[in-house]
Design a protein that fits this description.
The protein is mostly helical and about 200 residues long. The chain is built from 11 helices and no strands. Helix 1 crosses helix 2, helix 3 crosses helix 4 and helix 5 packs across helix 6.
């Protein structure tokens, strides 16, 4: 939905006054031509103003622009830099973006250790896709030491919260078939501990 002229005037005034949300909105208006003529330079200018104040949405807007070369020269280093700033503030979308980039070597040197690091951050925040992929990493020993119990625990949590792509169901069948009783007990303990910690965080 486009901003009206009156809304643009208010947003511009607030952005000039240093309001990061207004700065992001102004950048968005310039990027999308929602209320203003499209101007990529001004979009980057206002997104950067907001991002420098820690606005994660603006940081991810810059990540996307630099990653895809939208209105700017494609620059994977800047894309990773902005995504990392957002990820370090706990933004799960940014964490999963970095996971994918490092796992596949998209614009960066492929690094399974860094990929798993960000997947774990997102998984611990409750992202079910990250939990499933982290479980696979532990099962395969990709970026981490192979641990059947930990892999089973993360995969089970992903399924518990509704993430059910077919290949993950097959993987769980494989785990149940080949994981011993001790590993299953360890996994169940990990699952209970994670759920209890999650409940405490949500209640606080």
């Amino acid at each position: 939905m486009a901003f009206s002229k009156d809304e643009i005037l208010v947003i511009q005034k607030e952005a000039d006054g240093g309001n990061s949300r207004a700065q992001y909105n102004l950048g968005w208006a310039y990027l999308t031509s929602y209320g203003l003529q499209r101007d990529y330079d001004l979009a980057v200018h206002w997104f950067t103003k907001a991002a420098d104040q820690g606005d994660v949405v603006a940081q991810m807007a810059l990540y996307s622009m630099y990653l895809r070369g939208v209105g700017v020269m494609r620059d994977s280093d800047k894309a990773v830099d902005w995504a990392t700033k957002a990820a370090n503030q706990g933004d799960v979308v940014a964490q999963m973006a970095l996971y994918s980039m490092y796992l596949r070597g998209l614009g960066v040197t492929r690094d399974n250790n860094k990929a798993v690091y960000w997947a774990k951050k997102a998984a611990e925040s409750g992202n079910v896709q990250a939990q499933a992929h982290l479980g696979l990493a532990y099962l395969r020993g990709v970026g981490v030491r192979k641990e059947w119990a930990r892999g089973f625990a993360w995969m089970s949590l992903a399924l518990l919260y509704g993430y059910r792509p077919f290949h993950h169901r097959v993987s769980l069948f494989f785990i149940r078939k080949f994981t011993n009783d001790t590993e299953l007990r360890d996994a169940n303990t990990m699952i209970r501990n994670w759920l209890e910690e999650r409940r405490r965080k949500l209640a606080s």
